[in-house]
Amino acid sequence: MSDSHSYRLVYENKDLHIPGVQCLGKYHYVTSKPGLPPHAHSGCLEISFLIRGFQFYRIGGKIYHVQGGDQYLALPDEVHDTAGEPEEKGVMYWLILKVPRDPKDFLFLSERAASHLIKALCRIPTRHFHADSQSSSTLEKAFELLNKRDSFSNRVEVANCLVSYLLQTLAASRAGAPKLSGPIQDSLDFIAQYENEWVTVARLADQASMSESHFKARFRSEIGLPPAEYMLRSKVNAAKIQLGKMEGSITEIAYNLGFSSSQHFSTVFKRYTRITPSEYISSKRPPLLTMRGWPSHLYVENNSSGVEPECAWKASSRKKWA
């Protein structure tokens, strides 16, 4: 699909006129984009919800591998970034809330209700968790309302959607990680075992004793990606590890992973990383990808020195970016 189908839509406070909401955004990328630099949101809480795809985030020295259906939380003034990795292709929503000292009128709530909600959000014990099943439709409704003519009643409806979303987020943060079903976990193990081959979706479906259409739907529901894309990403992940350890030449690694040529390998690698295998080696990046299935954090890395707690990066209002 052409990159012209990519877009990034951002509503800022001056667009929304909803007390406490600094930013509400969505992106839909069909190719990877430059990663986010280290930044923080002064006095603001950020909740990101990845609908589809995979993404790395780093906060407090920990790197989190977020997959489709997951949420990621950054507390006020916490420096975070994409760990030197690009923003990968996929679909994501994010919401940035100003944490006020005086919660009066926050999301048009009463002072007491707003105070309880803010405290509960700031006390979420984990940075990464699986989202509530209704969260996607709740945010979609909010964006549909934003496309209508601006009015006070419309703003209140959008705020009500966001309150519902925040309550769903609180419930999801307490629910813990969902367990993968046996057939899907077996499929992941099979893909990992035969990463040097091109395993067909039909073969995986047969292994799981499902029709191909049922298997695709089940896999995407639990993993957040179609099985074919998951397998392609797995090969890129394995390539990163091998390139980082210099386990053979680029051509040898390409053939070891089942690619028909080093050119095909380079094309796929760049699609997901924005750099060629040769550039990846030159950058001396550590391999980040080691986990299969529903992930938590991968490893602890020392914080970069000299990172300021403020961020110069800021998305423009209602910006569409191809």
Tell me the name of the CATH homologous superfamily of the largest domain: Jelly Rolls
What is the domain tally? Answer: 2
Fraction in beta strands: 15-25%
What share of residues is helical? 25-40%
**Per CATH, which architecture of the largest domain?**
Sandwich
β-strand number:
10
Write a structural description.
- It is a single chain.
- The protein has 322 residues and is α+β, with helices and mostly antiparallel strands.
- It has 2 domains: 3-175, Jelly Rolls, CATH 2.60.120.10; 182-293, Orthogonal Bundle (Arc Repressor Mutant, subunit A), CATH 1.10.10.60.
- Helix content is 40%, strand content 18%.
- The chain is built from 11 helices and 10 strands.
- It has a 6-stranded antiparallel β-sheet. A 4-stranded antiparallel β-sheet has the order 7-4-5-10, with no helix packed on it.
- The chain is globular and about 60 Å long.
- The two termini are 12 Å apart.
- The model is unreliable at 286-322 (pLDDT under 50).
